[in-house]
Design brief:
The chain is an alpha/beta fold. Helix content is about 35%, strand content about 20%. Helix 13 runs parallel beside helix 14. It starts with a strand and ends with a strand. The structure holds S-adenosyl-L-homocysteine, iron/sulfur cluster and FE3-S4 cluster (F3S). S-adenosyl-L-homocysteine binds next to strand 13.
Length: about 450
């Protein structure tokens, strides 16, 4: 049987990174990746459970795979990621054509699982123990699990920690990813070195809660804080741009702010999810900061790095959120004037505390608040983007399609521009100077002024 893998990834960058590892692991057994489930001998959905909709999507896709699975009896269908972790055996009960369910901390078992199923040693496989091993590659596996950069690759995620200990009352992540564990500094630095040797120019350090790197279960390194780690990564030659995601504002330190002033390659862009603009709601969410503390941190960040672009995540309609509470979120938007935001309607999730809170906000109220927030954010994003008209920006090219190019500024703004006719040497990952002439709510437009 030909070894072909189709993997579809949902959710956050942690899942994207896990999918890369899965592809690498199976490639060692001769698997090559294909673009359609019909042409695959192993189909994996790497799933997200952050909101109910994300989970529903998985079940509907699994339903659609039933026929393909019937037509190709040798095909194996598997579910990985956060829904797999959360639902485990229940997936097999609802979807009997699924062959295996593999939890977030078990991905290294995958080659063995596939082998056992293929040789018919087992009929079904469920492997969803949590707290058993890292999903981030251990040092000795680095060279096997760090993907080889293909032509055109110029940026990569590097996981620095797994799990989360914060238990925000609405969030499934601590339940699906387990306890927070920081990865050893030397492994992180080595992974970054491997990547830059392959020509990668932009590194994003990844964790659900990067600000608390090293504070919980530091592995063998003694205490190294996130800002100390950041400084060490920034020093690696070849790291042209450095970013990180995500941060809980409660752990954002002055030392980290100082990095924005002192590290040239640390991009002036900060995704700092606030979630809500009411102290009552923030307390019920168990976020452990107040609106005032958040505003103070934003103000300090801007003192350290005046050109920093700040983006956020917002949940509207948390249980008990009154119109006055929501107005607090709108006021916060006016005060910070976020460059951009991701905003969501609150969704009940299994095992979370807020699922049991009374006083749920009706769906139509949530929808109305969400669109009110998004309308205003769009206006502000447009106004913010217009501030860049007339400036010159260093733009790292992301894609080239004929004569049109798309790239990103250090502040994470997308810029569209044309490739000058006499310059056919453009490549992705190259940085060019662009003079910005137009602004929309989601992107900028400009002209190259040199290369
Ligand atoms: N670790 C990050 C968030 C990861 S989840 C942090 O602490 O900020 C990404 C975003 O999904 C969250 O910031 C939140 O805005 C949203 N989210 C999480 N759980 C949710 C839920 N139950 N309902 C709606 N949105 C949710
Ligand atoms: Fe979820 Fe909160 Fe952890 Fe973010 S910090 S992953 S929102 S529990
Ligand atoms: Fe989703 Fe799991 Fe990431 S729930 S957001 S895939 S950690």
């Amino acid at each position: 049987m030909e070894n072909t893998l189709y993997i579809k990834t949902f959710g956050c960058q942690m899942n994207e990174r896990d999918s890369e590892i899965i592809e690498q692991l199976l490639a060692q057994d001769g698997f090559r990746s294909v673009d359609t489930p019909e042409s695959a001998s192993v189909v994996i959905l790497n799933t997200c459970s952050i909101r109910a909709k994300a989970e529903q999507k998985v079940y509907s896709l699994l339903g659609q795979l039933r026929d393909s699975r019937k037509k190709a009896p040798e095909m194996l269908v598997g579910v990985a990621g956060c829904v797999a972790q959360q639902e485990s055996r229940r997936i097999l009960e609802r979807m009997p054509h699924v062959d295996f369910v593999i939890g977030t901390q078990q991905i290294y078992q995958l080659p063995d699982i596939v082998q056992r199923l293929r040789s018919r040693q087992t009929e079904k496989e469920i492997s969803t123990d949590l707290e058993s091993q890292f999903t981030i590659p251990p040092f000795q596996k680095l060279h096997e699990t760090v993907p080889k950069a293909g032509s055109g690759d110029f940026r990569r995620f590097v996981t620095i920690m797994q799990g989360c200990n914060n238990y925000c009352s609405y969030c499934v992540v601590p339940h699906t990813r387990g306890r927070e564990v920081s990865r050893p500094v030397k492994d992180i630095l080595e992974e970054v070195r491997i990547l830059v040797r392959q020509g990668i120019k932009e590194i994003t350090l990844l964790g659900q809660n990067v600000n608390s790197y090293g504070m919980t279960n530091p592995v063998a390194d003694g205490k190294v804080s996130f800002s100390q780690l950041l400084r060490q990564v920034a020093e690696i030659k070849g790291v042209e741009r450095l970013r990180f995601t995500t941060s809980n504002p409660k752990d954002l330190s002055k030392e980290l702010m100082r990095c924005f002033a002192e590290l040239d390659n640390l991009c002036p862009h900060f995704h700092l999810p606030v979630q809500a603009g009411s102290n009552r709601v923030l307390a019920a969410m168990n976020r452990k900061y107040t609106v005032e503390e958040y505003l103070y941190k934003v103000k300090s960040l801007r003192e350290y790095r005046p050109d920093i672009a700040i983006a956020t995540d917002i949940i509207v309609g948390f249980p008990g959120e009154s119109e006055i509470d929501f107005q607090g979120t709108m006021d916060l938007l006016e005060q910070v004037r976020f460059h951009g935001s991701f905003s969501f309607k609150y969704s009940d999730r299994p095992n979370t505390r807020s699922a049991d809170f009374s006083d749920k906000v009706p769906e139509d109220v949530k929808s109305e608040r969400l669109s009110r927030f998004q309308r205003r954010q769009d206006q502000i994003s447009l106004e913010r983007n217009r501030e860049y008209i007339g400036t010159t920006q260093h733009v790292m090219i992301e894609s080239i399609d004929g004569s049109t190019c798309k790239g990103r500024t250090p502040t994470n703004h997308i810029v569209h521009f044309s490739r000058p006719e006499n310059l056919f040497t453009f490549t992705t990952g190259q940085t060019v100077l662009v003079s910005v002439q137009q602004a929309g709510k989601h992107s900028l437009k400009g002209t190259v002024i040199n290369s």
